[in-house]
Amino acid sequence: MDAIILQILNGLDKGSAYALIALGLTLIFGTLGVVNFAHGALFMIGAFCAVTLNRLLTLSHQVVDETRTDFLGNPLKVDVPYMQDIFGEATGAAIIDWSVPLAILFSIPIMIGFGVLMERGLIKHFYKRPHADQILVTFGLAIVLQEIIKQIFGANPIPTPAPDAFRGSFDFGTMLGFDPNVIIYPYWRLVYFGFAAIIIGAVFAFLQFTTFGMVVRAGMADRETVGLLGINIDRRFTIMFGLAAAVAGLAGVMYAPINSPNYHMGMDFLVLSFVVVVVGGMGSLPGAVLAGFLLGILESFASMNEIKSILPGIDQIIIYLVAIIILLTRPRGLMGRKGVMED
Amino acid sequence: MFGLGKRDLTLFFIVAAMALFAPFILNPFPTDSGMAQFNAGYPDLMQRFVIFGILAIGFNILFGLTGYLSFGHAAFLGVGSYAAVWMFKLLSMNVIPAILLSMIVSGLFAVVIGYVSLRRSGIYFSILTLAFAQMSYNLAYSVLTPITNGETGLQITLDDPRILGVSATADGGIPVTNLFGLEMRAYETLNIGPWAFQFSVGYYVAAVIMLISFYVAIRIFRSPFGMMLRAIKSNQNRLYYTGLNARPYTLAAFVISGMYAGLAGGLLACMDPLAGAERMQWTASGEVVLMTILGGAGTLIGPVLGAGFIKYFENIFSKINDQVVHGWVSFLPDGLEDLVVALIHPFVGKGWHLTLGLMFMLIVIFLPGGLVEGGQRIARRLRRKPSPDDAKSASTEPAE
């Protein structure tokens, strides 16, 4: 029992990331009908927003500290971040410590701007082209973005720590009446899951309860009619693209402490997220979220030693295996609508 | 002749002549000149040209004719390589059985993957093939380590049985791959003045196989079977309505294309008897797609051009470093020189992938038919209005 709960928890954080990326992919596909292979790159750019902010905040100058000396007896030079000069020592240190959560605010305008720019500058010209062309041009864009990041930040993963307050682990088992130290779960992953849940909830609420969201949903159902009613649906779809980019970016920002950002993390997640979208059903938002969590949890179950001893290597292929089985038995995916991208 | 039409025959002979004289054509600069680094006429790179040419020709039979975009073709390449290396380990160092086995194994593999994946079309097909390829890649790294030797890659060693050959040569070394005694790595150098031309056995073996593959591809393109595949691309529903089942045809195309990829993988192993799982990674699959698109999907010569183009620039661009760029622009004043070098720096050397990505995007945006379409556009414009400045503006087009 405790092992099962532990695996479900372990699957949640990866599942959250899959769900967030898949949600953005589906938003783009559902509104604009574009298959965006550069979505993983957006996730990666989000993670590098966190890195950038962290670097900006820790910009520092050297100060001679008279009270301490190095081994030669000279006064020691200490790096003092500018943040501590501006806000005082304690506040400055706290700001640096909380750089990852702060990066959320920092990344939202960047990601939305980037998404809108991408849609207006590139994707717009591909609505009428075949899906293969869309896949190819966004694939090319993904390569370009990835290489630019590689040139700026280098090829090595950059550790980006979570705030001190969340660095420990949390004994989940004691809450449920198990022995202590049976189910231990890092705080930050819990935060990530909560964050993902909030974002997903916010996106759904936005689509369900605002006028803007209603128009967008109407546009997803019948773009032409909405256009005939005198609504500028293209502009709204552009904004939705920006929003989808922001969702992917936020998923990346918060993922930075879990997995040190590197330039190919986007590609790694992209392949899996596509599988998630297809399993959930192309164009279905709840399907994408459901499939994201489902596959994340399945993946963590498959990496249990008990299961690996029966079926060696299953943890490596479980997601693909599930995708193949689902596509063959239920071609539309778990919650796909009839007739969407069936050929 | 050979059952080809006049135009196809001409095309075939042009390709054959280019393949035959490649050591000359690709070596236009004298060895000691500053331009020598742009020479591509060395065996290793020429082998790559033709081997990846085979891969792209095969991919084009599937994508160019039926329109099914497979994102998992690298899996067949990898399987072919492993099969060939196993043949070297168990049977002999002769390349013929290795190539045959790699084609058979990848063909069988393609039957299985194709049977499942072709039940869906469009993007679902792409994702299914991608899923299969990633599965093979992950398995090659983990569970199948006894067969694939995991991260180290499969190599030939001194204690392999090699039933029909020898485990070790007389002087105790590992035997080399050969074709009835002709060593693949052997080459002759012909010095004419300041030029040095290299003729490699491996290259010519691969080139002959490429020509055979190219010939088969032409025949497929012109056959009723090829017509059927084109019909699948243009309107599959109508095909069903006329009472024809498209799936056996697509499956056949998929298997043929998988066997081409396996052949390419086998040849790679023949030139360098080493097989690693990274050959199956999805970026490798993406590269094949790129080659075909760049050259022109659905055309005969396009994939070969695309493969050569990408492999050439991959090798040449990644060799250019800052010193070389400094050498080019040394005539500029110092400050300006540094600026130019700094501007070029991200695109050359290790930044080659950036150039590749940009080139790829520009091709898809402005020239969806690839290099072949670019060439046709120029030809059309030249025929219509043969004024010199018009031709000049047209000829800048492929650079986009």
Describe this structure in words.
The complex is a heterodimer of chains A (343) and B (400). Chain A has a single domain, classed as Orthogonal Bundle (ABC transporter involved in vitamin B12 uptake, BtuC), CATH 1.10.3470. Chain A is mainly alpha-helical. The model of chain A has no long low-confidence stretch (mean pLDDT 84). In chain A, helix 1 (2-32) crosses helix 12, helix 2 (39-57) packs across helix 5 and helix 13 (285-302) packs antiparallel against helix 15 (314-329). Chain A has 15 helices and 4 strands. Chain B has 400 residues and is mainly α. Chain B has a single domain (6-304), classed as ABC transporter involved in vitamin B12 uptake, BtuC. Chain B is 65% helix and 5% strand. Chain B has 18 helices and 6 strands. In chain B, strand 2 (178-179) and strand 3 (182-183) form a beta hairpin. In chain B, helix 3 crosses helix 12 (282-295), helix 4 packs across helix 11 (247-271) and helix 8 (201-222) crosses helix 9 (224-234). The two termini of chain B are 38 Å apart. Chains A and B meet through helix 6, helix 12 and helix 15 of A and helix 6, helix 12 and helix 16 of B.
- Fraction of residues in β-strands of chain B: 5-15%
Please tally the helical runs of chain B, counting DSSP H or I stretches of 4 or more residues.
Answer: 18
Quickly name the level 1 CATH class of chain A.
Answer: Mainly Alpha
Mean pLDDT score of chain A, rounded? 84
The percent of residues in helical segments of chain B reads: 55-70%
Order of helices and strands of chain A: HHEEHHHHEHEHHHHHHHH
Category by helix and strand content of chain B: mainly alpha
Radius of gyration of chain A: 22 Å
How would you sum up the global shape of chain A? globular
What is the CATH topology descriptor of chain A?
ABC transporter involved in vitamin B12 uptake, BtuC
Helices and strands of chain B, in N-to-C order? HHHHHHHEEEEEHHHHEHHHHHHH
How many structural domains can be distinguished in the coordinates of chain A? 1
Rg of chain B computed from alpha carbons, rounded to a whole number of angstroms:
22 Å
Structural class of chain A: mainly alpha
**CATH architecture title of chain B:** Orthogonal Bundle
Quaternary class: heterodimer
Distance between the termini of chain B: 38 Å
Q: Report how far the terminal alpha carbons of chain A are from each other.
A: 43 Å
The CATH topology of chain B turns out to be ABC transporter involved in vitamin B12 uptake, BtuC
> What is the number of beta strands of chain B?
6
